[in-house]
Design goal:
Length: 111
């Protein structure tokens, strides 16, 4: 059931984006995956502490994920091939994740 609901949401966002990029982006920007993960975690464990810990970690990790949404349109607007742009954007995002984890550890925040 979890997989079916999650897949349906991804397909819905993709199909909606074909018709209207704004509404597709709006639906995609809502943290549906995070909300579903927290819902499934709570339903499976009935543990609000684990849900709280997940929500806190997601908060911190959203910050470096924004690098993808900055790099991808910039690369595409420069005429870089889609797949290469996506790959470069993902690599940049992974690097940003690593940098953030190091910074957070320096300040005593463990994810």
């Amino acid at each position: 059931m979890k997989i079916v609901i999650t897949v349906l949401l991804v397909v819905l966002i993709s199909e909606l984006s074909k018709r209207n990029s704004f509404f597709g982006a709006l639906l995609a920007s809502v943290p549906l995956v995070s909300v579903l993960a927290m819902l499934w975690l709570y339903l499976d464990t009935d543990d609000v502490a684990k849900v709280s810990e997940l929500a806190s970690s997601v908060f911190w990790l959203v910050l470096p994920s924004l690098a993808l949404f900055i790099a991808l349109p910039l690369l595409l607007s420069q005429g870089v091939n889609f797949y290469l742009s996506l790959t470069i954007s993902i690599v940049i995002t992974v690097i940003c994740y690593g940098i953030l984890v190091v910074i957070l550890r320096f300040y005593g925040v463990e994810l």
